[in-house]
User: Fold this.
Amino acid sequence: MQRNNWWLFWWLLLYLMSFDITCKHPGKPGSEHHNPNQSQLKNNNVNQRKKNKIPASDVKRSMADVNSFVKKGSSDDVFETVKSLEELLDQVEVNETMIISLSHLVALLQKPKGPFKGLEFYGSQSEANDKNTVPNSTVSVRLPREVDVGSDNTIAFCLLTWPEGNGTLAAADDLYENRLVGLYVHGKTISGLQERVNITMVLTKAINETQEPTCVFYNFSRKVYSRDGCLTLWERGQGHITCSCDHLTYFGVLVVSASISPRDQEILTYISQIGCGLSLFALVTAVFIFITNRTVRADVSMKIHISLAVALILLNLHFLPSQTVAAQASTGLCIYMALSLHYSLLATFAWMALEGFHVYILLVRVFNIYVKRYLLKLSVVGWGIPAVIVSLVAVIDRGAYGRVALDSSNPNSTLICYITNDTVKVVTTVGAFGLVFIFNMIMFGVTVIRVMSLRPIKEHGQSDRDRAKRDICTLLGVSTLLGITWGLVFFSFGYLTVAGLYTFCILNSLQGVFILLWFVMSLKKYRSSATATSSVTRSTNS
Assistant:
């Protein structure tokens, strides 16, 4: 009897606890008690949503308000315009297909029936269709099967066209024909597609030699146009452009100002390849001279110069075949080429900085310049720091190396194996070289001052003209070793773009040739010194 009382007590306690939970959280799964107020509220919400739906007969009248906003507002009001449009389209009752056409707005809404096997849309300034192309069609869209839209979802395809002269979001660029192509699925977010969405637009206006079309989408969170996830499929002379994207949103084409014409690009490519080839041969010759000449090998400065030459050899060896490797199917080989190219570039910058440091030791400190194991310490910095940077990048971001367009503004330009991460590229190359350039410019200024201060002191039998030639050669040689000409990249913009790029390519691709000339001049200097010393010794003995 006592045992039965205990079971009754525990059962009653469990009942009271479940009753308390049910009262506090009505409507939860597993609740035994039905809350009539909750059911009534749910039905009211459903009825309210049904009540808010716009019947087909009233759609055009409601869309006229959005069309008026597009007509009067500028394309800077993209966010407000699209928000109003989507709110309106979400309230439209759609059975199968509905087409809405106004002066600045064309929309097609479709609710698929059965399994989704992909879909195509066609649109012009005044109409849209999902079955056949329309007269004067300017846009066609192909949705892949991967979008996988169900019968409960509504697909929206719309064209928004702002009147001419209403301005765009990008001051320096133009939104082609002031048009956005909108694609979205009500109640579903589509992104990261393996089979891409293709939006093809007819180019009714000619694209001149100084312009390039680029596919973009409107980023609503940042309120800017972005190229992320979109490929631009276009070649100069084509009458259409295809935007191949991995998500759905509002797309457009920006006509950007091309930095250089295709003709200049081709010429610069030839200059770079020929110049780098000559430099590679010249640098190998310089290394051979260094190895075979005992007097040159004994000089610490020449050892630093030869380290820079080796870094440039590695840079040219990995730069010249990069385009060919990128065209191959092997991903692993391309990653190796990109990683090695990055390392050799950083090593080149490091040895340029060490050349500047050596100038500081010779011309600024002058006294007490002995450093224990000086060359070993320089080698650890010149070869070790670039290795650490490249290793960290490879560990942190495994996708940081691979195929990338040579011209970042044109994804269809020539591919090379290099850094794919823009942040890594800017920080480790542009940022690193910026610091090296500032330091070496200061050291070059010190060298100029030093050379000018020694001008009053003449060597026996030396004319002013000979002295000027020697000083100019000295300064040109030092500027080559310090990599001063690489700084031209910071001045290749605006009206100086073409001239700056030509100067940059010619001087820097031939840097190895200039270093060889410096080696030959130094060798001649050593021989002259040896001859003079020998003459003094013979005259003294006699």
The two ends are 138 Å apart (CA to CA). The first strand starts at residue 97 and ends at 101. The chain is about 50% helix and 15% strand. Confidence is low (pLDDT under 50) at residues 1-51, 167-172, 533-542.
